[in-house]
Amino acid sequence: MSSGKQTDSEPDPAGQARWRRVQDLFHAAADLPAGDQHSFLEARSDGDAALVAEVEALLLADRTPDSFLDRSLPDLAGHLLGPDGPGWVGPYRVLRLLGEGGMGIVYLVERADVGGRAALKLLRDGWVSPSRRARFLAEQRTLAQLEHPAIAQLHDAGALPDGTPWFAMEYVEGVPLTEHCRARGSGLAERLRLFRAVCEAVQHAHRHAVIHRDLKPSNVLVKADGSVKLVDFGIAKQLDPTGPGSDPTRTGLRLMTPAYAAPEQVEGGRLGVETDVYALGVLLFELLAGRLPFELGGLSPHEAARRVLEQEPPRPSQIPGRPVQASRAAWADLDVLCLTAMQRDPARRYPSVEALIRDLGHHLAGEPLDARPDSLAYRAGKLLRRNARSVLVASAVGLAILALTTYSAIRLARARDAVASEAARTQRIQQFMLQLFEGGTGEVGPSADLRVVDLLDRGVREAQSLEAEPAVEAELLQTLGGIAQNLGRLDQAETLLTRALELRRTAFGQEHPEVGRSLVASGQLASARGRYDDAEREIRAGLAMLRRHRSRDDPEVARSISALGRILENAGRYPEAIAELEEAVRLQSSRPGLEADLSQSLTELANCHFYTGQYPQADALNQRVLAIDRRLYGPRHPHVADDLINLGAVQLEGGHYSEAERWDREALEIMSGWYGLDHPETASAQTLLARALLRLERRDEARALLVNALATEERVYGTVHPRVASTLNELGIIARDQGRLDEAAGDFGRMAEIYDEVHHGKHYLIGVALSNLADVEQRRGNAVRSQQLFRRVLAVYREALPEDHPLQGVARVRFGHALLAAGQASDAEAQSRPGYEVLVKRKDSPATWLTMARQDLAAAYRALGRSADADRFQAELTVGPPSATK
Fold this sequence. Notes:
Structural class: mainly alpha
CATH class of the largest domain: Mainly Alpha
Number of helices: 36
Strand content: 5-15%
Helix content: 55-70%
Largest sheet: 6 strands, antiparallel
CATH architecture of the largest domain: Alpha Horseshoe
């Protein structure tokens, strides 16, 4: 950016200073008699005539009794809508006045043609001020971008005959957030739930480069069903405007509510996402303390601004008469959440609403906050209350390391001198923890820009310094290897886990349960890389070692059984996988405190039922998992997103594509918010959402998601991996449907090669790829090649799937369709009829394939001269048999 240009993203310090001087002079002169004001300003302006004129214009507007802005709402309404009172605005009939919004008047209106009520907003002086009109039009564009269940939606826009702009938006019947909580006597959990919903809506706006700039309870309405709606984005501002913005010093005081305004907003400085973070901090403070952090009642705007800029807010836990109760430890976290969001310096606040949501999630899960001083006592206390599972964010890195190394120290103490070894390990762990998080401030712990990958790399360096303590080093390296795997850094994970296994073999010998744990971890990584034979061999060896040295109901044994079940599932050996997973579920259900492990095992068991076509069983298990995970992790966690994806997959297979899209879109929003856009888990969620969109024939939207997903997956996994193949499948479908048959054949052919290499020719997914390729070859006119491929598909399915699996039916229907197109009516009937019989017996068969089967059988029977049979299937096309799903 040229230093000679001034935009909204680069405020002018001189302009801000001048505006503050205008404010000071205005407030000082406003209390003087009108006849003394000019001489006062002359004396205080240092000869700046323009300054005097600017202040006098404000004073004149202030004392003008007929100032437009001083009119009552009824007067304004009469002026805007005519002497006959409320009538019509565009297609809307005005019902009654609702009140005054950020820059205009708001009416309750009703759509004349299609019905339905809306809130219609008029800009009060839009025809007078071009800048106000431009801002109002910008508001319409801003609102149109935001599609979120917690943000009031824009319906329509237009202008009155005199040019006054208006727009109609969703009418929200609700009460302000704080009023709702006060009236209901809401407890802490309910207040935090509502606050989190507000944060998620604001985060959605920020993703669309929009900040609200006036977050306050009256703009956060709670509906009767307990859901929240953000309203009045009337002063929202594009973060990346295409042209020069207006001077922030000119309208700064009108575009904020002082009690919720950030210091930079009060000063007329640069606004960004941190401005909304500050307002959210004030909102949370008010929910917790029952009052605002600063008492601004009765103060002039100048005095209110000075108080916000100069005073430090108190801790909400210090406010007497708080409306909620919490433990001392919980209040300590809540104080940090509020005060970090409300830091005077924007650079010291949470860098994003996402970071605030993440810390709120940590608090709800009993985990350490990212913004909490990194004392060992604090993290140890949190450790006693948290539910351990995959370590996915920066604060959890330190927590998992501390948990696992402490557990390792306890086990090792049994085999060594108890006192000396324990003391030495404890001291070393403390040093490790302190060095891992070194570099943060004393107030908020780790540096604000310290990412989880930075902590991982630092942890690896520190762990490698423990050469004299191989057992402790091995424990740390295995933990860090698991973190690297979760982050998609598979090469680094393999290096760390291999080193941990070597250290344990050196420290304990070849036969030891710790070596068994390392083998299981290595096997799980091999599975993530698609090396299922290696994975099964290592996990079986590790499980056998654990069974020899641990009790049958030991949690490590159950976890390893579950891991083996997942490997068998990935290899397509579903009956074996189900047996192992049911054993893991039984063991984990019998012991308290293993809900997280139980959730994982139930998920894989649901997957096995899904892959064998038992969709009702899969759906029931997935619903059970979703309830467990929401209870354990809250509603916005990646494990919850995985559950939503699995539920969406069941709906997709049942032909309920809109339901599938709903589950998958919610899952993608969680994944991208948690991991970012350049992560394999986000890529997987993109692929699955694209699959639903494809069935809804929204191909361009689907393809954009798939291209991004494929680039991420190939970067992380390489070119040969099942997730790459899955994405290629959807890209191939799009290319096929759009007539790019050579491209589609390439995608499906590559997909088949990947599955063939990974599964050694024995997996139903090979059949899926070949079936799609056969369809493309038939469309390209290669009938012989198409029929060869379909025969191989049926052979693959016979070996991998039950006889009544829907894929068996679909494959036969597709093969019959190709044969009929080639004029082979008898052969077509021999395939389509048994395919139809498989599908028609199932309640969850997609109507698409049943319709194709009926059409083809009707045509085949007519060609064969079997009119009665043809008439039967023709009739089913109209009404369908009672057992068919439509």
